[in-house]
Structures are given as C-alpha cells and as structure tokens.
Design goal:
The chain is α/β, with parallel strands linked by helices. It has 22 helices and 20 strands. The protein is globular and about 65 Å long.
Length: 602
C-alpha cells in the first residue's frame, strides 16, 4: 500500500508556543483518519502542513509525484465573482461530470440535485450564499474533483443530520478504493462512522489509535487506568463515556475496532451515566406537574406557516432532542417554548415554579462583558450553584467546562468562538434553571468540552430540550427525539434519529416519483390513493404495531433496570446485553412495518 503523504519530524512554532513538536505521521492510500484534540491544539495546522499550504519550521513533508490533494479549510475561501457551477464543476462540460454516478450523488447529497436547487441554482453567485450554503458548495467541489488525498477541516459544520449521514457513507463506501481522507472533526458520530484510525493532537504530539471515537475513548481510559487509583478510575469521565458507548445501540457498538473484553473489564462496575428515575423524581419535586405547554400553537413568519397548530406539553424531567432540516422551524419552536416568539394562534402556558433558561445560537449577549475576566463573568451571575444535588462554586464549574487555571483570568473579549460558547453555557447553568432550552449547544466545542458538558447535564435534574445536528449528543443526553419535517408539525420519533432519516428518505423519494396516471372515472383500483380495503388494512397494521412497540419499550426498560441492578456482575450484564440487542432489532423491524403502513395512508 503506497503512502500519499509523509511528514517526518515536523515542528511548527507559533510565537513562544510549540504547536507541533517533531511529529512524524504518514497517510497511506485508502486510509480514513479522524483527527481530534482541543481547540488550538494544532489540528488545523497539521492539515495545512499535509496539504502543503503551510511550511513547517523544521522537518520535511514528501508526496509521490502526481498525487492530487484537496483541502477544505475551516474558513470559506471561495473566489469572488464565482458561481455555484464554477466552484463545483469548474470548466468541465456537462457530459464530463454528469455521467459519473459519484458526481450526481454529491450534488444530490449536498446541493439538492443536479440543478443545485438547495443553493439557488447553478448560476447563483457565491457572494449571495449564506455561510452554510458556501460550505456545502466548497465541499461539493472537492468531492466532485475526487483527489487522491482529501483533507477536511470540520466538514460537518453547517450540515444537517441527513447531510452528515450522507457524507459519512460517501467517504466510507463511494470514493475510489485507493483514495484517502483525513478529517478534523468534533462530531463523534461522524468520527465513528467514517474513521478506521484516529489521531489525537495534544501537547505538540500526535497519538494514533485504531478505530473511531469509541477506540479513542478506550485508549484514553486504559492509559489513565495505569496511573489512577480504583476510586479515581470509577469517577473518571472517560470510563463513564465508554460505559454509555457499550450500552448504546448495536449499530454504534459494532463499528469501533476495539477489544470488547478490555472495554467490559473497564466498565464492569460502572453505573449508567445517569439515574433517570431519581432525576425525574427530583425534577418533579422542583417543577411540580406543569412545565411548559403549547396548545394549538401556530407561528407564521413571512407568510409561511412554520408551526401549524402544534400541541406539546413538556413534562418534569423530560429530556427531548429536536431534529430537522435547516429552516424547518427548530429554533422557532424553541423560541415559542421560551416565550420569545409571539404565537400567531393558540396559547402557551407556563407552570408557576418554572425557571427557564434559553441558550440561543447568538453570542451578542457577551458583548457588554468584553472587559470582564472569565471568572468575573461567571460570578456576575452567581458565585455558588447546584448541579443535581451537589453544590459547586463558579470556579469549579468553570474548570469542569474547560476553563482551567489561568484561562479563568482571560478577558471575555479575547476568547475564541468555542470558549465564548462555553462561557454562555456556564452563565446559563449558574442561573439554576429547572428548564433548559439549548439551540445547537455544540457549535465550536471540542471533544473534551463536549464530554464534560454531557457529564454536567447527566447530573442536572430538570426538563431539557436540545436542538442539535450532533447525533452523538442527542442520543447521549436525551431520552426521546422529535422531528420537524417542514410541514409545520412536530413528529414523535420512537425510533430516534434513524427513524427520522428513513422518513426523510421516503419524503424525498415520494417528491421525486413521477405522478401517476389521472383517473378518468372513480371506481375500484382507479383512485390515486389507497383503496378502502388497503386503508383499513394499513390502519389495523398501525394499531397492532403501536401496541407491539409499547410492549417492546416496556421490556427494554425492564432490561435496562436489571442491567443497572447487576452492573457489578459481568456475566449477567453480558447476558442482558444480548437480550437488549434482540429487543432493539425487534423494535427496528416494527418501526419499519409502521412506516410502510403509514406511507399507504399518505
């Protein structure tokens, strides 16, 4: 297997900081490598070095003659005056690229089809595009070019769940067998789905792990096990994260390449990440029965009905994730729940004990605090707060979310985008809310900070609603997902994100299907819709499947409870894990049957 690029003893120094210290790495053909590490640790620098757009201060980088390299930087660098067509296919004639299935797949997955409908058309000027649209166009241009080595810096930024799932599949199965990809990413689901190998950039060095995010977590946990005492290991965040990974859906745990025996040994006595029953009981005590209700809520913006007679009653201790395409109304729904978006129709009711906090995607609220130091900005809200049942100081909570040591003395105006996001979260948590609404909380956060945030949320007792394109976060901190499909309704998703992606695929296929012949006379078999007999059969199927799903959910809950009760019994946990996998497969089969029946009635 040939090596597409080789870096030997590469050193890069920024000011007085050594970003890369005598690093030696190589990228073989067909490699799929994910790069992780803290913000500012040197990940983007490493990518630029491999691409040849930045020269190291010492060391050398070599590539075989004729190797083609494509780099997607974090910032948009599309040339002014260019059109979507020029960026994506350049000067190629249509017959040169349109005949390639891979190129058509790229256009469909990222730009809404061969006419680039999702970004305003082939001839749209790139200056008129939004940041997210520019990102998609730049990524599409690289994938259509299909270089030998593809270097991607945060490729999932601005992509929705569908596009992220499409990109992971494209990089894994649809590119040339000899092509390689190296992707810097904070998206842990994407990392597990795409990567065969992980690089951790930290302290000027690059450590290599076989596998995706789960393998990276295992390697860290094993490394710390050597140094930690048994009590410290039990409290270690990495072991808690690994325990959740092993107890998650089988589709996830089947991907990582790590030794299951080693993972089981590390987590045999690890309890579940959170005690849902205890947290709900405590949340009910703090909130009472009434939280926030939307009743027949309608929101019309710019003549478009974003929410259409939505009725949603949040329960105490409920943890809900919201998914949907960009522009489907997710942020509008959060603002309606928060009372920040006036309803065109319907009403909003709030319980008398609700203390609500809403994290928006905007950071302007920090502007008046630019001269404050980080710890001052946190203590400006409160000096001591309670997370779950534990009292923590502002400094302790700041440390848990990555502001360690001297970083607490940094002025707010000097913080990076990721640090400003962390500070927003800190100030929100210090208000001691019992209802939290989070709109894309993972924007600009690195993997260690995401893990710390999830740990904080694990022990937080209250109602949590999260809008996110980070599939890992949604599955990690929420117990239920709902979807917005662009029709103004809020659709419950008992099958989670996988069900949402199936529904979106069915929606696209239905929209792309040619219209059937128009019936000239009503009669058996001539209607465009289902016959009365077909409709009755579909309704019976839906009723039967919903009852079966309820029974499966109850059995899953009992198995989870038994796993928690016998967490120290390794053999019992393995046996119960087998039962859980069988139940998950049964549930997925039932959900497919439900979707098939529902499509008959559409």
């Amino acid at each position: 297997m040939g090596v597409l690029v080789n870096a030997e003893r590469v050193t890069v120094v920024h000011g007085v900081a050594t970003v890369l210290d005598a690093v030696s790495v190589g990228v073989p053909s067909a490699a799929r490598i994910g790069v992780v590490g803290r913000n500012g640790g040197g990940k983007s620098t490493l990518l630029r070095i491999l691409a040849g757009v930045q020269q190291p201060d010492s060391g050398r980088v070599t590539r075989p003659a004729g190797t083609t390299v494509g780099l997607l930087p974090q910032g948009d660098r599309l040339e002014g005056g260019s059109t979507v067509r020029a960026v994506v296919v350049g000067a190629r004639a249509d017959h040169e690229w349109a005949g390639r299935a891979g190129a058509r797949s790229v256009l469909g997955g990222l730009l809404g089809g061969v006419d680039a409908a999702g970004v305003g058309g082939w001839d749209a000027p790139v200056e008129a595009l939004s940041g997210g649209e520019r990102r998609r166009v730049a990524l599409a241009g690289l994938l259509v070019a299909d270089p030998d080595l593809l270097l991607l810096d945060e490729p999932t930024n601005h992509l929705d769940l569908e596009a992220i799932a499409w990109l992971a599949e494209h990089l894994s199965t649809r590119r040339r067998a000899d092509a390689a990809v190296v992707a810097v990413t904070h998206d842990r689901w994407f990392l597990d789905a795409m990567a065969h190998t992980s690089w951790e950039v930290q302290g000027g060095a690059v450590a290599t792990f076989d596998g995706g995010y789960a393998a990276y977590v295992l390697a860290q946990a094993q490394r710390q096990r050597v140094a930690d005492t048994a009590a410290e290991r039990r409290a270690n965040l990495l072991r808690k994260e690994l325990a959740w990974l092993r107890r998650g859906p089988p589709a996830r745990t089947s991907k990582p390449r790590f030794r299951i025996e080693a993972a089981n040994a590390l987590i045999a006595d690890e309890p579940p990440p959170r005690d849902d029953v205890a947290l709900v009981r405590f949340a009910t005590h703090r909130l009472g029965k009434d939280v926030v209700d939307l009743v027949d809520a309608t929101v019309v913006l710019g003549g478009r009905t974003v929410l259409d007679r939505v009725t949603w009653r949040l329960a105490p201790g409920e943890r809900v994730g919201i998914v949907g395409v960009n522009g489907s109304g997710k942020s509008t729904l959060l603002r309606a729940l928060a009372g920040d978006e006036p309803l065109t129709g319907g009403l909003r009711r709030v319980g008398p004990t609700v203390a609500l906090a809403h994290l928006t995607q905007q950071a302007e609220q920090l502007a008046p605090l630019a001269a404050y130091r980080v710890i001052e900005a946190v203590e400006d809200v409160r000096r001591v707060t309670t997370v779950g049942r534990q009292e923590v100081t502002a400094s302790q909570l700041a440390t848990r979310l990555g502001f360690t040591g001297g970083r607490q003395q940094t002025r707010v105006g000097d913080l990076s985008g990721g640090e400003r996001r962390r500070l927003q979260l800190l100030r929100l948590l210090m208000t001691e809310p019992n209802v939290i609404l989070l709109d894309e909380p993972t924007n600009d956060l690195d993997v260690p900070t995401l893990t710390s945030l999830e740990d904080v949320l694990d022990g937080w007792a209250g109602t949590l609603v999260v809008v996110s394109h980070d599939r890992y976060l949604l599955e990690r901190v929420t117990d239920r997902q709902v979807g917005l499909l662009g029709d103004g309704r809020v659709q419950d998703l008992p099958g989670g994100v996988e069900q949402y992606l199936r529904m979106r695929r069915a929606q696209r296929e239905h929209a792309a299907a040619p219209p059937g012949p128009v019936a000239t006379r009503a009669g058996p078999g001539t209607s465009d819709g289902p016959t009365a007999q077909q409709a009755r059969a579909a309704r019976r199927t839906i009723a039967r499947v919903e009852k079966a799903l309820a029974r499966v959910a109850d059995r899953e809950a009992r198995v989870h409870a038994r796993m928690a009760a016998v967490a120290a019994d390794h053999a019992a946990v393995i046996a119960l894990d087998g039962q859980l996998r069988a139940l998950v497969l049964e549930r997925e089969a039932l959900e497919s049957a439900w979707l098939d029946a529902a499509q008959v009635l559409d």
